[in-house]
Amino acid sequence: MRGARPRPPRIARRAGAREAPGRDRRRPAPGAGSPDVPLFLDCGDAGALAGALLAASQAAPGRPAPLVANSLRTDDRGSESLLRAAAWAGAGLVISPRDADGEGPPVAVAPLLARIDALGRRAHGAGVRGPLFADALAYPPLGDPARCRRSLALLRALRDSTAGPIPLVAPGNVGHGAPGPLRRALRRLYAAAAQGAGARPLILP
Fold it and tell me: Where are the domains of the chain?
């Protein structure tokens, strides 16, 4: 049929994976009450995230603001299925350079920027046309002060890059390991510093 939308790509399911329960058709589609705000889907498994992305796209086909999948990493075997799903759904992606960081001293900002650029080009090459975000990798200052400071430096570098992805960070991460009052204070301080360094969306706890 002319003008028909192509069928979604097939996503391989992991052995033992369970189907998500069906959505109640009487309820509004995800994000229907805030059509101008992107809906972020967060999952550590790229294959599962691809399936969720397709399901959410089909549940709300007329949504004007894009879905955004968090996140695309080069070390995930499901990244190809995630790229195909994002391209089909017209969705955006959060690019994570976390796999460029080893267990030793923190990697400098320049290699992380190079990894973000490579993943961005890979996404565009796969047909992804939604917005691209770059995760600046927030770390708790109590456990890893060097990486915490580096995240702010990475945000500044992303801010100064005119053609790069939109800088994004998760302030909730910096409170890990801190007692309640200090955890909340660290999150607030880091969120303010991150916004000053150029962060746009903030993933809040």
Answer: 36-135, 137-161+170-205
Q: By three-state DSSP, how is residue 51 classified?
A: helix
Residues 6+ apart with CB under 8 A from 129: 87, 90
Q: What pLDDT is stored for residue 1 in this prediction?
A: 46
CA angle 89, 92, 95 (to 5 degrees): 135
Q: Mean per-residue pLDDT for 31-54? A: 80
Q: Is the pLDDT of residue 42 over 70?
A: yes
DSSP character at residue 22 = P
> Identity (one letter) of the amino acid at 25?
R
- The confidence band for 113, taking pLDDT boundaries of 50, 70 and 90, is very high
Give the integer Cα–Cα distance in Å for 178 and 89: 39
Alpha-carbon Rg for the chain, nearest whole angstrom, is 18
The tokens for 60 are 């709300």
One DSSP character per residue, 181-201 reads HHHHHHHHHHHHHHHHHT--S
Phi, then psi, of 95 in degrees rounded to 5: -95, 125
Residues in the chain: 205
Q: Fill in the DSSP letter of residue 174.
A: G
Of the candidates 83, 121, 119, 126, the residue with the CA atom closest to the CA atom of residue 99: 119
